Each structure stands twice: as C-alpha cells, then as structure tokens.
Amino acid sequence: MAKIKKDRKGRENQGRVHMVEELGHGSHRGKGKATELVSRLREAYPDAQCSLYHTNPVQLLVSTILSAQCTDERVNQVTPVLFRRYPDAFSLGQADIAELEGLVRSTGFFRNKARNIRAACKLIADKHKGKVPANMDDLLTLPGVARKTANVVLGTAFGISSGVVVDTHVARVSQRLELTKNSQPEKIEGALMALIPQEEWIFFGHALILHGRRVCTARNPRCPACALNDLCPYPRKQMRS
Ligand code: SF4
Predict the structure, then answer these.
(1) Measured from the CB, is residue 226 less than 6 Å from ligand 1?
(2) Do the beta carbons of residue 155 and residue 161 sit within 8 Å?
(3) Residue 20 belongs to what domain range?
(4) Is 148 an active-site residue?
(5) Position with higher pLDDT, 18 vs 141
(6) Residue of 169, 229, 239, 241 to mutate, ligand 1, most atoms within 8 A of C-beta
(7) Domain tally for the chain?
(8) Cα(146)–Cα(64) distance, rounded to whole angstroms?
(9) What is the pLDDT averaged over residues 229-241?
(10) Is residue 191 part of a domain?
(11) What is the pLDDT of residues 85-96, one digit of tens each?
(12) Chosen domain end from 130, 158, 186
C-alpha cells in the first residue's frame, strides 16, 4: 500500500489528490490549457501511435519490456528475429534462457529482460491460455510489467484507456510544461489523468513521446519551433536564469 506522507503543515499527501489541488488541475484554467495542448498535439502529430514492431498483444508486451532503457529503433531491430524463433507466449515461456539472452542482448539489461519475458510468457501460457490479459490488475501480476508497460499494451493492443503512458519523454515534457511538479512516474500519471480527458489518454501519451523525441529533447529543446511554446513556461524561465 502507498505510504502516506505529510507535508510541512502536517496535511496528509496521498499523491494524486494532493497533486491535483496543488497545481489547480481541477480549475477551468488547468482544463482549458489541457484542451488546447491536446488540440495542438493533434495538429502536430495526427498519427501518433506506438512505434514498437508487433503483430499481436504478446509481441507488443515483449517489445515494451525490451524498450526499458533502450530506443524503440534498437528494439525493432531485435524483435523480428526474436519473434521468428519464438512466435508466441507458449514458446517464449519455454525458451532456452541462454538463447533468449543472446537474442535480446543488444537492448541492454538483457539478463533481467530475458528472465522477465520468459516468466511473463509462462504465466500467460499457463494462466491465460496464451493470451495477454486485457485488464490492468492481471497485467500487473506479470513479471517485468509495471503501469507504463500495462498502459502501452491496453491502449495500443486493446484500445482500452486505462491511464497515460509515462516514459522518460512524457515525464520531461510534462515537467517543462508544468503539468506536474513530481518526478515519480505514477504521480506524473495521476496528474495527467486528472488533467486530460480520458478519451485522449492513449493519444496524449504517444504524442508527448514523439514531441519529446523530435522537439522537446533532453539537452536542446527546440523551443522557438515548438507548437506548444506559448503554453509552456520553460522558455521564459530559461531566459530569466
Ligand atoms: S516550449 Fe520548449 S520546453 Fe516547452 S514543450 Fe516546447 S520544446 Fe519543450
């Protein structure tokens, strides 16, 4: 269970609720900014979607596990070979661990990833008849699967709007836009869920990932060319510092 922290005035901070109040996310101003952000992102990235190669939910789950601390491009180089050798949850759940490690080695953290992929697929084969469960609770029981991976799978494979995908790009862009002051992924996600309409959660995550890759990059954000510039406090803060 989440630990309840107290702030300086002794009030309980239960994460999402406190964060929403702190940033005024329930206000008309917060909602208005969110609506405008979504509309600008729709214009800039009309086709935003998951860029991981996959042909079914099992493959998407495996690709997403592999994408931790790795680029999608690198994962997409590895997975076609991996899925030819091990095409489904049954074969992946029985995979030779040394061979699996070798196949995913270039994505980094390969021992952990191979172990998690095999264990998750074994559970899917044994408990879910080889099909990825289409709900958050069951997904979170799979080794190597936290909310980010579960949101990717539910949103992209099943069209279920369960939350907002928060990766390193979404975290950075959300902070620069001052949609959140938090740095923990689950708290960032809570803030975004409070702000963005649920029907936009899937698109919003994918669009912010693209924006973080193409424009709002970690080292040199291209603020003058950014479609969100007038909604974003970051450039003005940089000028003052
Ligand atoms: S204005 Fe700059 S910091 Fe703000 S979202 Fe755009 S690129 Fe990122």
Answers:
(1) yes
(2) yes
(3) 15-40+176-240
(4) yes
(5) 141
(6) 229
(7) 2
(8) 11
(9) 85
(10) yes
(11) 999 999 999 999
(12) 158
